[in-house]
């Protein structure tokens, strides 16, 4: 699917989501989002994550192509990792597939195929 120079596809394989020495989830239902020439961003369904470890923050941002993003702090054993993830609760038209998913900052959370 393509919308606004954004391509979505179901990522093949199973992905492990880890941070601060802990496994946060594993998913075979990851969506890969590519925007222009940027590196792919993986959106993981909340149902495949330990959501009890994530607290929604007051941080928001706006992307003209994707819409309004909400952010989540990861409550790790070593301490909180502020705004480690984001989500488009109601993404713009054509990107509804990523609703109900979290994406992660690569320097805070590792998402990799296993």
TrEMBL record:
> Which residue ranges traverse the bilayer?
none
InterPro entries with a match to the protein in the record: DUF427, DUF427_sf
Domain DUF427: start-end pairs: 17-106
Domain of life assignment:
Bacteria
Name of the protein in its database record: DUF427 domain-containing protein
**Organism, per UniProt?**
Litoreibacter arenae DSM 19593
